[in-house]
Amino acid sequence: METKAKGGSRKAEGSGHDPRVASHAPMNHGRRQFMVGAAGLTFGVALGVPDVLKTGDGAALAQTGKSVVINPYVTLHTDGTVIIMSPAAEMGQGSLTSLPRIVADEMDADWAKVKIVPAYPAGKLYGNPLFGGEQYTAGSATVTGYFNSLRQFGAQVRYVLVENAARHWGVPVAELSTQPGVVLHQKTGRRLTYGEIAAFATIPAEAPQIAVEPVSTAQFRLIGKDIGRIDVPGKVNGTAQYSIDVQVPGMIYGAILREPMEGAAPEHIEDSAARAFEGVIGIVPLKYGVGVLAETPWAAFKAKNALKVTWSRKAKGWGFSTGKGYEQFAAAAKDLALKGIAWEIKGDAAAAMGRAATVVEGEYRADYAYHAQMEPLNAVAAVSPAGDAVEVWVGTQSQTITVVAVAGALGIPESRVKFNGMLLGGGFGRRGNRDVEFIVDAVLMSKSAGRPVKVLWTREDDVHNGRFRPLYVNRIRAGLDASGRVIAWHHRVACDEVLAFMDPVRYKMTKGRDNIAMRGTELPTYAIPERLTEGLQQATGMRTNPLRAIGVGQNSFANEVFIDELAAKQGVDPVAFRLRQLDTTPLAQRARHVIEEVAKMADWTRRREGRGLGIAYLDYSGTQLAGVAEVSVDRQSGAIKVHNFWCTIDVGVPVHPDNVVAQTESSIVYGLGLALTERITIADGAVQQSNFYNYQVPRMRDVPEIHIKLIPTRNHPTGAGQMATPLVASAISNAVFQLTGARLRQQPMLPERVKLALADAQTRVT
Amino acid sequence: MSEKITTTLTVNGRRHSVTALPDTPLLWVLREDLKLTGTKYGCGVGQCGACTVHIDGKPNYACLNAIKDLEGRSITTIEGLSRDSSHPLQKAWIAEQVPQCGYCQSGQIMRAAALLKENSRPTRQEIVDYMSSNICRCGTYVRIARAIERAAKEG
Known about the structure:
The structure holds 2 protein chains of 2 kinds. By secondary structure, chain A is an alpha+beta fold. Chain A folds into 3 domains: about 20-235, Aldehyde oxidase/xanthine dehydrogenase, molybdopterin binding domain (Aldehyde Oxidoreductase, domain 4, 2-Layer Sandwich), CATH 3.30.365; about 245-315 and about 375-455, 2-Layer Sandwich (Aldehyde Oxidoreductase, domain 4), CATH 3.30.365; about 320-370 and about 470-765, Aldehyde Oxidoreductase, domain 4 (2-Layer Sandwich), CATH 3.30.365.10. In chain A, about 30% of the residues lie in helices and about 25% in strands. In chain A, α3 packs parallel to α5 and α17 packs parallel to α21. Chain B folds into 2 domains: about 5-80, Ubiquitin-like (UB roll) (Roll); about 90-155, [2Fe-2S]-binding domain (DNA polymerase, domain 1), CATH 1.10.150.120. Helix content of chain B is about 35%, strand content about 15%. Chain B has helices at about 25-35, 80, 90-95, 105-120, 125-130, 140-155; strands at about 5-10, 15-20, 50-55, 60, 75. Chain B is elongated and about 50 Å long.
């Protein structure tokens, strides 16, 4: 009943790919949320598949003829063009290309005929199942979250096409197979292209539920193969469009002087100097600041800088500083009488601690850190004269959140918001907060102006109004048995609250558990049976947000430096100590593999004159990684130089391997800045840095030789976009210890901190 | 000081007369008046290089050059580097899949084009030194360096 490929029937892209047999039988429990029965060619319309799919952009991409919408993701045209909707935001992570690859693979599409269209806001159709059906691109959760449903959609399309061909030829479905873009009946040598089938296809009223092959055995044709990202060509010639590039007729410009901290409203505005600038159209008092409308960006910036505003002293953040924060957080972390909100409980850590032969403690800190996405925040809005409708052009990590926030700002229904999603000039967590304040800015300014407005934040605004990775004090206690194995673990995390500020909607559902602050404290692969991690999030009035690697960036730093300290105390090699501590689960076997491989790559046991090696391991949302840093230290200045960084990463099945490597390179460079130089400080509630001259991010000269080994395994794909970031600081700190005996327990590892640690290590030796 | 002036300058081989406040940076004239949006705003203070263009053939920051100083000068932006993305650097950028968010890449490519004009076979260290003026927050530096080496080789 299965047919075999004839010689020469393989396509170039699918080299080694046999025609797929049509053996997938539809199952009966149709997933109606995906495809609801509206009989005929416009199958899927009943679900609210929008006009764009029926007649709009989608059809316009095809050359001639008509098109058939097979499900919310796929429209097939009679000329063979396959239009695939891509539901996530593109901020450089590549999912605009990766997600349609998953659909195309399962439907056996000819990739050369695929056109990708970014999906518009419709959470019900395009939401990420991991985020309760919201279109929210974050957490490196896109490929992993959409993977199963996109395979299912692709399989449905393929089944519908095969089933139509079978009816057309009057043969059983089981005699048919597919090749990229073609259905074959090998008994008779007949073939129909997908485009030919589109001309007569009828779409079933019930969504066929297809049993897709498990990832452990599936034969992928496109998944796992490298391909040029579709957004890349426009990014080398200046044609890629970000929201900052948008111009609409009649548009003017806006700039906003925002309150120095949340809740400090303007009390007195002195704007005569600002109004005097040529090109200034108006001054707009807002609840949270003062806006300037002008003919040009330059006039808007100059006028904004000339505003003199007295702020109300009611805001919670007044008087707060980095120093006070450390004092308060350290006290909270240390005071065991102060109960935190449990994040992870395994067994009875307190009882196990009592049984331990020795108890070891460590404290770790991190400064506030800033996203520094290259495109300063901005948005374009055109509010209708009556104020009852709006069109926005935005770079956002969430289409869903944006539409709700914009509608809320104007008090209009969501259906009156027309959304234009643009490329993001970097996201890193900055553009997914529930209030999307940088978009609401443009909406309020356009409403006031009565015409379209592009609101631009200067880089200084972007820093001063930043929403940061919080200030952290982590305190870990470990209980060891007589053989030196860790049997109990207690990790307390004191930091500014994040989720409560950035996403009150989600916070309400979590009962105070702040996942953005707490993630990364868990230790799913180390065999430590009794564990307790607690969150002591503090309401400081500071603005916070997820920042690439969220809490993992600091919590994993604390874990992995502490583990290194435990190894050193026992005189055990840090790699051997980690391997010994690993569990025996299948996940821990993958952990073992990445650690052993990275040690091999770095030639771990070879000592190098004047240089130290440090290792770090991490399970990040199921992705297994390990990193080794090779460093030297200038003892005079305290400067750390990273010469090499080796990294192994296992994301399960890599959908787009070269892009996993690219994202890992990116994560390492980002981690390097957080580890060594990046630091926001607060004085009297306000941010003290302004621009790249006093917030220093890595440049090409700072980047070590990077060696990455991607280890594909037959597991469900997990995240890639930020996973290596936390490894960097941990590995560097551990490498500095190996070289100098000095322990660095605070990010960033600034030269003056290194010098203090070196002096401290010296004191302990002498 | 606050009266607008008219400046005539050549951009990508075409003469333009633009009227703006004298201290208006070239960046905003390129982007908002001439609609050449490939040149990006990143910092406004010559720290990040996202606005890198060539002024009379030399790499420069569009954010730091006021329009009053540009009378008669010749500007090349990313849009003028080639008509069809055929510059060796643009081809190499695609071959190495350099861009991620892509926002800084116009500036990176313009900076790299100036480097290759000055030094057609730069060493890795020369590339690193020359390109360290430009920030890429996605950290695509490894691929930028590789793409420059590829363009130098494949010309």
